[in-house]
Write a structure and sequence with these properties.
A hairpin with a 5-residue loop joins strand 5 and strand 6. The chain is globular. It is built from one helix and eleven strands; from the N terminus they run βββββββββαββ. Strands 2, 4, 5, 6, 9, 10 and 11 form a seven-stranded mixed sheet that branches. Strands 1-3-8-7 form a four-stranded antiparallel sheet, with no helix packed on it. 33% of the residues are buried. It starts with a strand and ends with a strand. It is mostly beta strands. 3% of the residues lie in helices and 47% in strands.
Amino acid sequence: QVQLVESGGGLVQAGGSLRLSCAASRRNFSSYAMGWFRQAPGKEREFVAAIIWSTGFTYYADSVKGRFTVSRDNAKNTVYLQMNNLKPDDTAVYYCAARAGYSATYYLTYRQEYAYDYWGQGTQVTVSS
């Protein structure tokens, strides 16, 4: 079983920045794609960003385009979510997720939770106004 561990959450003022990290507990774990989701209080979990590990191709939710950047470090087997110009609406628990195997239809399903096989426990991001 693989565990994903997120870190980097915290409290920040509006307009500030945070960088989230996600690493797998198993050193030799490889995945096809990694995604970031978030869940605000009283709301459903929603897609934020994703990256295909081999190509670095990225996907973003419209609400974060231009402010968030997803990236990966092959040497560290770690995925990052750089969040700039944070807004109070970005307050949520942020989760990383991994899709283990290749999918020819990932470009259609990357926003869906079922497209991912492993999930982290989440890290809290709070943006104050």
